[in-house]
Amino acid sequence: MRLRSLLFVPGDRPDRMEKALASGADALILDLEDSVTPERKGDARAAVAAFLAKQHGGPALWVRINPLDNGMTPDDLAAARGADGIVLPKSASGQDVAALDAMLAGVAARILPIATEMPAAIFGLGSYAGCSSRLAGITWGAEDLPAAIGAQSSREADGRYTPPYEMIRGLTLFGAHAAGVAPIETVYPDFRDLDGLAAYCARAMRDGFTGMMAIHPAQVPVINAAFTPSEAAIAHAQAVVAAFAANPGAGALQLDGKMIDAPHLKQARALLARAGVA
User: Fold this and answer.
1) What angle do helix axes 231-246 and 262-275 make, rounded to 10 degrees?
2) What is the Cα gyration radius of the chain?
3) Contacts with 71 (C-beta within 8 Å, 6 or more apart), sequence order
4) Confidence of residue 130 (pLDDT cuts 50, 70, 90)
5) pTM to 2 decimal places
6) Which of 227, 201, 218, 274 is CA-nearest to residue 24?
7) pLDDT digits (tens, 9 = 90+) for 228-258
């Protein structure tokens, strides 16, 4: 399942769901949590269930349920039947994913936890490896946690994350890679600033994230472009793989005047896998 771009859509806005199908996103996240007020939860569940009951082509359809500890999970999962995946907010550790897995018996849905929204969850970022075969990735957020600890903001005046939240971003990245699943970058809040988004995406791609969540359809083309390997990058990766294939006993080789070794081969194979290139 390709997860370059994951676009949030309010679960109580079926009109936006229909429009989002044409956004170009790899996945839509039909939201039953933060974008839906308590009095609208029932309407949102009904709208999501009706939307999932239709035959749609294009993006994978995910549903963000409400947190496991608030008693809404059975109703949310009933509405999400037929979804390709479940986004789990306020996940504390791999145990929460395992608990959700057990609730999905007989359903093929994958799971994407948002793994940084509570203080205790930070210490669980290394616990996701092996927690469930449904685990598709790990993502993070920079809004709920500051509120939980009484911080004024997670960002500097210029938009960069402050050191505590930069650390959490890094822990999410490595936690996902340690679990062998996709590390998904969090949203870029200013949906009108596409230049800023492009720079943000480039940084995420550089650091090792493989996809990103979006809050507006206008962000999707920028995100897809950033997380799609270029033709030049694919050609270079293929050349690295071919060089080692032609020299199976070599630990290090020269390519285009530069030394390459086992880490470069691993990077090349990962890039080709993301690009869907043999």
Assistant:
1) 130
2) 20
3) none
4) very high
5) 0.90
6) 218
7) 987 888 898 999 999 999 998 888 888 888 8
